[in-house]
């Protein structure tokens, strides 16, 4: 996966407290998860996805998990932003929505 700043996304794998980061090389590098998913479904290679984005494909047998022992469950999502910034009303509303969504998902998982 190529990030917006043109750098490559490093795959972070974790097992029993050991963390490993991989700089994955390949002939095809994409910057959109949906297109990467389609490429993987078409047999082009492997991908590193958010579980939610491929859960139906895994359940239907279209995709299989690789390195299962190196991918612990990660509840929720992370959002990083400068804490000192003067946040706009839109950004503040987005943060409130993200926090609310995370709280609802955490309640469902309990």
UniProtKB/TrEMBL annotation:
Domain annotation LysR substrate-binding: ranges: 6-102
Pfam families per the UniProt record, alphabetical: LysR_substrate
Database matches in InterPro entries: LysR-type_TF_proteobact-type, LysR_subst-bd
PANTHER family in alphabetical order: HTH-TYPE TRANSCRIPTIONAL ACTIVATOR TTDR-RELATED (PTHR30537:SF5), HTH-TYPE TRANSCRIPTIONAL REGULATOR (PTHR30537)
Family classification: Belongs to the LysR transcriptional regulatory family.
Name of this protein: LysR substrate binding domain-containing protein
Native source organism of the sequence: Paracoccus tibetensis
């Amino acid at each position: 996966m190529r990030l917006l700043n043109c750098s490559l996304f490093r795959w972070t794998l974790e097992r029993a407290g050991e963390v490993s980061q991989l700089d994955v090389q390949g002939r095809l590098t994409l910057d959109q998860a949906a297109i990467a998913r389609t490429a993987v479904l078409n047999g082009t290679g492997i991908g590193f996805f958010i579980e939610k984005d491929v859960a139906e494909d895994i359940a239907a047998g279209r995709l299989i998990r690789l390195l299962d022992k190196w991918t612990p469950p990660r509840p929720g999502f992370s959002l990083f932003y400068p804490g000192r910034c003067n946040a706009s009303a839109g950004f503040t509303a987005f943060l409130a929505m993200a926090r609310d969504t995370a709280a609802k998902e955490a309640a469902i998982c309990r």
